[in-house]
Batch of 2 targets.
Target 1
Amino acid sequence: MLNWLGAPFGSEVVVRAAIAGSAVALMCAIVGTWVVLRGAVFLGDAMSHGMLPGVALASALGGNVFVGAMIAALGMAYGVAALNRSARFSSDTSIGLLLVGMLAVGVIAVSHSSSYAVDLTAFLFGDVLGVRTGDIAMLGVALVGIAAVAFVGRRAFVAVTFDPRKAATLRLQPQLAGIALTVLIAVAIVASFHVVGTLLVLGLLVAPPAAATLLAHSIGRIMALAAVIGVLSVWLGLLLSWHAATAGGASIAAVAVGIFFCAATAVAVTSRREAVPA
């Protein structure tokens, strides 16, 4: 049994993937807690897919794909905010319109590349087993930055999430706090997409915090539990990928979502049993 559990991690490639995936899980736990509590999952999904034009154009021009991805993600967020202010649309409508538009532009740009299929597959699904030492260092820097901003702005983030009016009364600058949270989402997504891909990063961004909210009742505990669930998902996902010969990123995301449904089922069963005597 121990040999079965330890076999994958005898490979340096898998160890690097585990370290990088754990860093991504920690970032997503911090940022994803606010995403879930604010009900901004659709915005996170749109930002993760809206990066495609930036990545494609940066790659075509020989630039840094991470800079292009960040510009596109922040542009997506700004566009949503601008449409919400100037048009009579709901937030979901604005996000949906920009998501389709950004994806269309991105696919058109990528289709002109000679490595169309490879580039798009890497963008969508990532390559967790192709992580290099430099990638881990970059993820570490992003993690430290996100953790520092989240710690410094924690009071403002709590206030703007639950009571923006009170945040303004307390002079916590709710608009600035909202912008900071949006930037944190963008940084986490951009730093993570090359590891697990844009289609799968949402799994780590949403599933562990969502599961944690079912089991904990304070923001600090939710964030800590989400971190534990996220890291556990990475290691179990890599273990599954090794023995079942499945895609690494997809396995990690599947485990994270599976843990959420297990937690939801356990909570539902427990609540039903407690309600029977009453």
Target 2
Amino acid sequence: FGDDRPEWRETSAKLWAMVLHMMQGTPFIYQGEELAMTNRHWQPDELRDVEAINYRASHSGLAPAELSRRLDAIGRDNARTPMQWD
């Protein structure tokens, strides 16, 4: 739902954070959102998430680019990256 283009990424992230925290209930921050961490692109042989590995095995007929795009969307390995300090 956000816009990943460099000129809109920060504004888009701030607006979505505002929407999340203005909603009723208990908002929570997950997987480095407070630092605006970005997801890393994983090569198929780098995967450690069992769900992503099983998905890769069961969808081996897909084109490599499409499979990579899908694995980036469903994988949980982004939660396992070091904190992106700068």
